[in-house]
Amino acid sequence: MMDAFEPDDPDGNAVTWPKVPSNFRASGTPLPEPWEARFGPLRRGTIDDLVVVGQIGQSIDGRIATVTGHSKYINGPAGLAHLHRLRALVDAVLVGIGTAVADNPLLTVRRCAGPNPARIVLDPRGRLSPDAKVLTEDGVRRLVITAEGVSPKLPAGVEIVTVAAQGGEIAPSAILAALKARGLARILIEGGAHTVSRFIAAGCLDRLHVMVAPIMLGAGQSGVTLTPIATADLALRAPMRAHLIGDEVLLDCDLTAQRVAIGVAKKST
């Protein structure tokens, strides 16, 4: 379904956006700026046939929620519009069960023109309520990823994807392999922080988009949590580009150097 309006235009570029989703998928020509700089790297995979992008919205001091767990909305119109544009360009958007339960998100495209992506919930133990908004029937594919042996009771039409789990969690590489087998090639890992962090740690993201809002919370939940390191020289380093969007800053981090191949890796030509 296509929205015919653009309610949020924080950086004055919305007039060129409506044709971007279709051109992004169908054309090899560069997109009009600023869209090529922001989204061009997501058009095709360099490691395999997948493009996997993670997204986090956070404060200047790296928080995605206050100490009470409140997070609506750390990011303003600029950050929210960027998130919805990402949704409009991918095949599917994935959230973990924690985010699905706590936020009960729609995961639809509402703040820009563009098609709704397939909606996926990672739910190893079958906790998702059949009344969750993400499962609303609207003509878009809905998938729930569960561990082997789990039999969730979900509405008709919801695709149940069963994947082997270890220690109660399903490996990100196994998740991507299962989605690739179902024809989903461009995937947005939208949250929450635990899910995005697991995909980073597993080498399963091509890009990470961090949208930094001009606020400081002082304390609260961190955006990315990885295994602690002893010295700074052991840190994960990634080439990065910064984009000013309204009063927020998008940090586009290139993680392809550590990305593992899912299935058959691409051959160089």
Structure description:
The protein has 269 residues and is of the alpha/beta class. It has six helices and eleven strands. The chain has a nine-stranded mixed β-sheet with strand order 6-5-4-3-7-1-8-11-10, sandwiched between helices. A two-stranded antiparallel sheet has the order 2-9. β3, α4 and β4 form a beta-alpha-beta unit. It is globular. The N terminus is likely disordered.
Low-confidence stretches: 1-7
Please, how many helices? 6
Biggest sheet, in brief? 9 strands, mixed
Straight-line distance between termini: 37 Å
Using the CA coordinates, give the radius of gyration.
18 Å
Which of globular, elongated, flat, extended, rod-shaped describes the shape?
Answer: globular
Structural class: alpha/beta
Task: For the largest sheet, list the strands in their spatial order.
Answer: 6-5-4-3-7-1-8-11-10
The counted number of beta strands is: 11
Mean pLDDT: 92
Please tag this protein with its features.
single chain; 269 residues; nine-stranded mixed β-sheet; two-stranded antiparallel sheet; 19% helix; globular
What is this structure, in a nutshell?
The chain is of the alpha/beta class and 269 residues long. It has helices spanning 20-26, 35-39, 77-89, 97-103, 172-181, 193-201; strands at residues 51-58, 63-65, 92-96, 118-122, 142-147, 159-163, 186-191, 207-212, 221-222, 240-245, 248-254. The chain has a nine-stranded mixed beta sheet with strand order 6-5-4-3-7-1-8-11-10, with helices on both faces.
